[in-house]
Every structure is written in C-alpha cells, then in structure tokens.
Amino acid sequence: MIGAIQDVTDQHRNRSELEGERELRRQIERNAAELDELLRERTLMLDVLAHEVRQPLNNASAALQGAAALLEGRHDTDAPMHLARGQAVMGEVLASIDNTLAVASLLVQAGPAACIDADIDSVIEVALADMPPAQRHRIRVERGEAARTAAMDVGLMRLALRNLLSNALKFSPPGTPVTLRLCDSDDPLALLIDVIDAGPGVGAAVLPRLFSREVSVRPSTGRSGLGLFIARRAMELQGGRADLVNNQPGSTTLRLTLVAEPEREVPAQSKGE
C-alpha cells in the first residue's frame, strides 16, 4: 500500500516537473520571439536612419564637388580652400555615421560570417577609395605574398581595412606615408595585412584597452575607439584577428590576420586586450 502511494506521488511529481519544463520552454520561445521582433525593429530603424541622414549629406557632398569643379581654373584661391575643407568635414561625418551603424550591426551578430574566395587587390582598391581623396597618395601598398585570393567576407574585410587605414592617416604626422603591407604566414596558415604609420605610438595607459569601444588613442581629441573596435570585431566574425604587433614612435603596426581555416566559434563581443 505504501509502495503504491509512493508510486502515485512520484508520478505526480514527475508530471509537475514535466509541466514546469514545458512552461519554461514556452517562456523561452516567447522571449526569443520578442527578441527577434526587437532586432527586426532595430534593423528597420537603422535602415531608416541610414537613408534619412546619409542622403542629405551625400547631396551636400555632391553640391560641394560641383562647386569646386566650377571654381577650378579661376584665380580665387580662398573659395577652393574652403570648399575642400567642407568636403573633408562632410567625409568625416559620413564615416562617423557608417561606423556607428556598423557597431550597431556587429554587436548583435552572433554567428560567423559566410566567407568566400575574393580577390585581395579588389578589396584593397575599394578600401583605398574609401579614404579622403586628398590623403590617398600617402598610402603605399607593398606585396610580399603570391596569393591573389583569400577566403573572406568582403564587406567585413573592407570595414576592417578602412578603419585601420583611417586610424593610421589620422594619427601620423601630416604628409608622412602609411604603408599597407601584405604577406603570407605559415603558422598559422594565414594572410597578414599590416598597416604601418609614422605616428607617436600608443601610450602605456591606453594599450590594454586599445580595441575596446570607449578608448581614445589621443584623449584630447575626443574621438572614441570605434574604429579599432570595429576592425577587431569584423575580423573575429571571419575567424581572424586584429592586433597591435609593433608599437614605437615613428613606426606603429596594426595587423589583420585572415586565417585560411578559421575557428568557427565567434566571441560575443570584443573586450580588448
């Protein structure tokens, strides 16, 4: 009799536990559905922001270019200078918007990117075209590898390159060269892309947080560290890395490592080193 009662009690407890597990699963599914909806809404809002903000800026930039073309060849030296400054500021604003939108997207991307074989030179050409026209002549490309293609996500690779090049141009003395050097690595099997500038290097206080979101290489400028954070996150999603490999005044090297057989696990968020 006691055994039968115990069996009934166990069955009741098992049913209760099973129902509890089912309810927990239903709650998790509801939470996941709500999160998916929030992410869809966030994506829609970002798309609207990108269109509503960038389109007027693009129009203004085109107007400045047209005005500069009309003034070309005239003897007015002040107007072209002011127009060039206006174009530079417009480019900085557009780049800032692009980076802000990129961060919002990269932070919620959990799985690894889908990498395909892409032409290395084409990706570099696009990244160079993203640089301000007046600064492009400073960038020198050096090749030390035979490979012409590599497995990558082209959009993420362009994003990483663009931010490293922009960082190098900003933090090195005006007129000094920035070197973009490509070479192969056997251990691990990877494509290495070094961006070398002639800047003052990274201070010891900043070094541990260099690739985090809030850091500024030069605090007095008020700039955030979004560029380097984006570069590292973009590489992580491809199974690669972004690192500081040489840090000394007059020769600072930031490296992108694109591994031939990347790890498929992607960190949820870069914390810096």
List its salient traits.
273 residues; alpha+beta; Heat Shock Protein 90; 2 domains; 5-stranded mixed beta sheet; two-stranded antiparallel ribbon; elongated
Poorly predicted regions: 215-224
Terminal Cα separation, in Å? Answer: 66 Å
**Mind telling me the C-alpha Rg?**
25 Å
CATH architectural group of the largest domain: 2-Layer Sandwich
Helix amount, in percent?
A: 40-55%
> What pattern of helices and strands is seen along the backbone?
HHEHEEHEEHEE
The main sheet orders its strands as 2-4-5-7-6
How does the overall form come out from the CA principal axes?
A: elongated
Per DSSP, the total helix count is 5
CATH topology of the largest domain: Heat Shock Protein 90
CATH superfamily of the largest domain: Histidine kinase-like ATPase, C-terminal domain
Instruction: Give the percentage of residues in beta strands.
Output: 15-25%
For the biggest sheet, the summary is: 5 strands, mixed
Please tell me the overall pLDDT.
77
What this model shows, in words?
By secondary structure, the protein is an alpha+beta fold. It folds into two domains: 108 residues; 144 residues, Histidine kinase-like ATPase, C-terminal domain (Heat Shock Protein 90). Helix content is 51%, strand content 18%. The protein is built from five helices and seven strands; from the N terminus they run ααβαββαββαββ. A five-stranded mixed sheet has the order 2-4-5-7-6. A two-stranded antiparallel sheet has the order 1-3. The longest helix has 70 residues. About 4% of the residues have low confidence.
